[in-house]
Design a protein that fits this description.
Layout lengths: L1 H9 L28 H8 L1 H6 L3 H6 L12 H20 L9 E2 L1 H14 L7 H4 L4 E3 L11 E3 L6 H33 L3 H22 L2 H4 L2 H8 L17 E2 L18 H10 L5 H10 L5 H13 L2 H8 L2 H42 L4 H9 L14 H13 L7 E2 L2 E2 L3 H6 L5
Parallel strand pairs: 1-4
Antiparallel strand pairs: 2-3, 5-6
Helix pairs in contact: 2-5, 5-6, 8-9, 8-12, 9-16, 11-16, 11-17, 12-14, 16-18
Bound molecules: protoporphyrin IX containing FE (HEM).
Pfam families: IDO
Keywords: Iron, Metal-binding, Tryptophan catabolism
Family: Belongs to the indoleamine 2,3-dioxygenase family.
């Protein structure tokens, strides 16, 4: 009877959380167009980079009709509508850089955006679930998920680097899928007291984290740091904890009081939240609060999945209780790979934000640079110099999150004979020139 009860309790299926077997948290086969009634939105959203650079996006939005949203019927239609409206909103707010922002989002944009957002349970701002999870198309539908075979549906200023940034992040999400699919096996294995099943599933999680790191490395090949820092980053920014939008944004026709939302960031990806809950990583204080808040920027069913993992599982206690050498080693390796991923992510942030930020400061001070570079630096958001797009104080936050991951280890900081990499060394190896 015991077994029967356990099985009913643990018949966890990813499907009930709208997580796809093939695509994980990625929206399978996003629609590429909306019903013809929404052509005014799609025409603007498709031309956003050109309209922004010609300073005419705001004018086009002022002339846009106020459309009804009830003709959007399916989840995929709503997701494409959210993506299009969020791209328009970002362009509208940031068209003139951080100095000439707006206080009000006009009603023909804000009203439908808030309605669509409410139906999806998402905030009315550009988020990871838009730009990465619902913004892709395969050139050859039968071909692989590869950089050559993928394209974006909608984009922002920054050309090929924007494409690289969103699609490499999509590949990181893809690399995580085998690990995500193993989570139910870990949960079931613990309920069944089956050490072998848990060990095997955990090994798959560790390998997936390793593949995510390999995918993350592609960022260097596809994204130019000065374009990321000088052009792209502002369009991912939000109006919470952002000095250049300190009062937030009024969504006209929705509510008179300004609203505040964080900018888009892969901190809103559900993947690492799942792995943290699985391994029992405990984020506390302001870092923990930020990460918890980021869950409100995820599709609600994905957030529920993360909460399900945390409430149904203590893998760490199981590992300690079993005291099985192979299981313990696999658990440790998994934690170590997660630390390794976060260390690598820190070196990426150093290259794409910290170094360009210090170069920008230097150049602003002595003005010795090419006209083009100076122009890019002038436009780069100074309010975000020490901050991530989500509004966090970057390095302190990322290192705290990394250190909390390290604290989850059972034995101390070694992975077999392999000593964990020293992130400060890795970061200092990246020189400004
Ligand atoms: C050029 C590439 C990237 C840059 C510059 C970057 C930058 C940042 C920054 C500044 C933060 C701090 C939070 C915030 O302010 O939003 C952050 C957090 C985070 N990023 Fe990235 N990121 C990049 C790529 C990625 C990719 C591809 C992933 C993979 C999904 C990722 C996953 C995360 C996660 C999970 C967090 C939360 C902190 C953590 O859990 O360790 N990032 N990132």
């Amino acid at each position: 009877m015991g077994t029967k009860v356990k099985n009913t309790q643990t018949s966890l299926s990813l499907k009930e959380f709208h997580i796809s077997e093939d695509c994980g948290f990625i929206l399978p086969e996003p629609l590429t167009d909306l019903p013809v009634y929404y052509k005014p939105w799609m025409d603007i959203a498709r031309n956003a980079p050109e309209l922004i650079s010609s300073h005419s996006l705001r004018l086009r939005i002022h002339d846009m009709p106020l459309l009804e949203t009830h003709l959007l019927r399916t989840h995929r239609e709503l997701r494409l509508a959210h993506l299009a409206l969020s791209i328009m909103t970002s362009g509208y707010v940031w068209q003139e850089g951080e100095r000439e922002t707006v206080k009000v989002l006009p009603r023909n944009l804000s009203v439908p955006f808030c309605e669509v957002s409410q139906r999806l349970g998402l905030p009315p701002i550009l988020i990871h679930a838009d730009t990465v999870l619902a913004n892709w198309k395969k050139r050859d539908p039968d071909g692989p998920f590869s950089m050559d075979n993928l394209e974006l549906l909608l984009t922002l200023p920054g050309g090929e680097s924007v494409r690289g940034f969103f699609l490499v992040t999509l590949l990181v999400e893809l690399a995580a899928i085998p690990g995500l699919k193993s989570i139910p096996d870990v949960i079931n294995g613990i309920h069944d007291n089956d050490v072998a099943v848990v060990t095997k599933a955990l090994d798959v999680v560790g390998q997936a984290i390793d593949s995510m790191k390999q995918a993350l490395k592609l960022m260097h090949e596809y994204v130019d740091p000065s374009i990321f820092y000088g052009i792209m980053r502002i369009y991912l920014s939000g109006w919470k904890d952002n000095p250049s939008m300190s009062e937030g944004l009024v969504y006209e026709g929705v509510q008179e009081k300004p609203m505040e939302f964080s900018g888009g960031s892969a901190a809103q990806s559900s993947i690492l939240h799942c792995f943290d809950e699985l391994l029992g990583v405990q984020h506390e204080g302001s870092s923990g609060a930020f990460l918890t808040r980021m869950r409100d920027y995820m599709p609600p069913s994905h957030k529920q999945f993360i909460e399900y993992i945390s409430s149904h599982l203590s893998l760490r206690s199981f590992v300690l209780q079993q005291a099985d050498e192979h299981l313990t080693h696999t658990f440790e390796q998994c934690v170590s790979r997660l630390v390794d991923f976060r260390n690598y992510h820190i070196t990426i942030v150093t290259r794409y934000i910290t170094i360009p930020a210090s170069r920008a400061k230097q150049l602003r001070a002595n003005q010795q640079c090419l006209a083009e570079e100076l122009d890019m630096i002038r436009k780069a958001p100074t309010a975000l110099e020490e901050r991530g797009t989500g509004g966090s104080g970057i390095m302190t936050f990322l290192k705290t999150v990394r250190d909390k991951t390290k604290d989850t280890t059972i034995t101390q900081c070694t992975n077999g004979n392999q000593v964990l990499p020293d992130v400060n060394k890795a970061a200092s190896e990246l020189t400004i020139d």
